[in-house]
## 1
Amino acid sequence: SPGWSERFLNPTAAAETTEAEALARGHSVILVTVATSDECQALIADASGAVVQQRSFDSAALKRTDLQFQEALSFRVRLPICEGFTSASAQICDTLLLRALDAVATNLPTYEGIVFPGECLASDTCSGNSRLTFSKGEPAVNMYTAGGGFQPHEDKQSLTILMPLSNGADTDAAGGTCKDFVGGGTAFWTDEATGPRPDEPTFVLRPPAGTAM
């Protein structure tokens, strides 16, 4: 369908199963457009304001050692949508998650039964769905400056949804979209390349803003 594409991490394994099972087993990555430019800009504006507020602690706060404050002084700030955003922005985030899940359900109708048995997704909310369990501090928006990022890791979750709010380098080839940053992106590795010191990634994705991975 329009706005839907697939990248294969393990092409041989993916070819031996269905598209839904390939995604569920981590053999492929799906890209699907879920957010408008206005929605992305609204979240960026709200997140930027939250970061400014978070960085404006007085000198006494510099003695704090909690993780969130340490991140505020680093190159990446994580803002849980249930804490750092206005209710309107939190609703946008929830809507985008629901759109991504709906796109998967529409294009891969058997996927939900593989990963989320028992109608876990039968809800009008994603972030507030009591049947779902999220990693600590998520769903969230991460804001980066030069040098910010994550070390290679496995999320250990049934499904991960990532969505850039700004345009990366790859978007030039996707229709002349203006780049908001250089470098960065999300790296993926094959099963064989995982370990404490993984090799170069199989590929790095920098899709246009509003594209869920």
## 2
Amino acid sequence: MPPSDKVTIKVKILEEEYHEITIDWSDGQTALQRQQSVFRKLQSITGIPIEYSYFLIFAIPEERVGWSVFYNSDFKLKSHGTLTDDDRFNKEKVMSIIENGDEFIICSDLRCSDDKHLYCFYTLIHTDFLDETDCSEAICHHKESRAFTNRRAQLVADEALNGQLNCLLPNNRSGNEREWVNIYLRLNIYQFIVAVCKQHEPFRQENSGFMLEQGDSRARG
């Protein structure tokens, strides 16, 4: 098999061991099936239910030209239904973004959709951006810890909590942003939705702000 028919990357939560993800372009699967296998692998590592994982983006070195957002076709929120492009996770696009042997830190963020349910999305951040001992512009060691990741996984799956959000949050986010924040504070989840580390915010806004805005708008009911 030619080397170009297979690519293996390594991913991990900070301070844990790496897990390999192999994408084999000759395995007979469709682009969508390969994409979903990546989401299932991330679920097995993070514990975040796949049905509440909205999309995946890569933060990669600047010299690479590829950039894309991959939407999870198993995402449960009803407004996601038309987002899946069955051919999006194709060889040309993916190989413009990642290279064999790349290592990434799994970063997850928590958001609340306009139909008032919590969900997560993933950013896989290349280890070129990692400071092993301290927070960097790219990665907050506290926010991306196992403890924080576990808490996000618990929150998106907590149907009692999400039921409270559905009852308490105003139906329209626009014009009611302060009330939404007050409800987050009341339910003690604000710190998991808002980034806790100012050091890495400029990087995240510069590299994924457009995608996050696009993703949030598409999650609206």
## 3
Amino acid sequence: QLFGDLNPVTARAMEILSELLGFVPKVLKSVKTSEYRKLYRDVIIKVTKPIIDVVINVENVAENAKDFQHNLIRIGISYDLVYSCLHTGEWHAVPADQREVFTLLSFLRIIYMLICGKGWSETLNDAIYIADMGLMLGAKVFVEHDGKDLDLLAEVVSILAKANKPDLSSEPPLKRLKVDIDDSSKAVCEVSILHQPTLEYFGTHHYDNREPALLEGIIDDWPALERWHDPNYLIAAAGERTVPVEVGSQYSSDDWSQRLVKFKDFIAQHLT
């Protein structure tokens, strides 16, 4: 147990956590130079310093277990406060800095969840959910890494998702998705129909002459055409991701609404 009584973390889990902790000093640096409200800035700085110590010495977690638990609660309170602010009034009027704060709190909440969580698999799923909510509601916060500016939460969720590939070997395979293609539009097509034309032919006869054409078969070799028919692949690739789903016949209908669901649940309920 690397983290004492807090969390029986595997070597792989520690590797993932180490990747995420690498962003922490850069986040702290950006917050110190920001113009965020003092309340948010002070909370972020206060809870960030202990996890910078984790980067230096993992034993600090076990030695200060209660402090880490208290900081997780402190982040949760601030997170809920900003979340409420984001849902007050009209979306376009939400200040950009509030959305940035939500992104940073999401990131720090993920770090503390992974450190303090009891069950790694369940905690990882919860962390992916927090990251997805941050991506949907927060604003992009860029951090420099290896000479590149990276979208903080996009990078975080990528790391988490790679570590969360489900084992579907014991599950019965789902049936392939059937996609019906309506070819009736071809009957009234008033432009040339080209089947897998060469780039040279298309360029000479259509692109250079500014003549439109309907192109067929040019993406037949794309792996997505095969993989995206397979719900087992989709669940393995993104089953734990949270996505917005529009429910109802049309926007103007009284029954129209929007829900957030796990992608795997959406597939199970609507596509299989």
## 4
Amino acid sequence: MKFKASFQARIAGVLIVLLLIVVSAVYIAVKVATGEAVRTQAQAQLEVGSRVFERLIDLRGKRLRDTVQLVAADFGFRDAVASADSSTIRSVLLNHGKRINASDMFLLGMDGTVIASTVQKVPEGSRFVYDQALRNAKRAGQSVLIVPGGGDPHLLVEATVLAPLPIGRVVMGFTIDSDIAEELRSLSGLEVSFLTVEDGKNGDLISTQPEALHAGLIELMRSSSEGQMLLTEQSNLNFLSQTLMLANTNNGGDGQVIALLQSPLDKAYQAFAPLNQKIFWISMAALVASLIGTL
């Protein structure tokens, strides 16, 4: 009888170990599968969101370009440009700029020389620093040029002033601020951040993320390769992140504008949490029932 009881105990022990292995393997497999599903879903969202983001930037640029073209075609504006009086042109630039919420306004000669400027750091008579970049963008069919300026990213839009021959180029800059970032987040479904880098120095981070995450975001944006998708963690929050280089004219003095798009993973993980819990308790119930059956 003792031998029989001992044999049954060994059989029960082996079955218990096997059941534990099977239950653990099933639970781990489900966890891995749900994690992979979350990452795949986040990757798809990031890919779609990045295309939406780029499309939205392009559409905004086209709207701004159309607006600036209307300014350039205005009779009063053309008359002021034809006067060649920088103070008059500057005043007209300010008036029109306020109407369309432009932050920086310039009138350039056809050779790229600054005729009138509302920005103190861009003196009249100097060569406009983004003249060649604007020409390249125009040849490439781009409606807008994204550049750093004073620590903030700017959208630069150009239109030619005709009277009826070309007599100048009006350039207006529009700051990318937190309102634009929030709009892009609502339309793309992604967390959006912008960072300018000029002379190796970081500008102010514009982000839809909480300020507590900003230091880590800046480090991530400076260290990540363009277009690469990475699983990242900031303050115990998980994201699938991708950086985009919005401005890099290959001129060290021009600086860079970096965008960071992030798809949150934690909410997706939470959606699978009830399923994981159910599988866990079902596995435990099966294990207990099996143990009872072996006794």
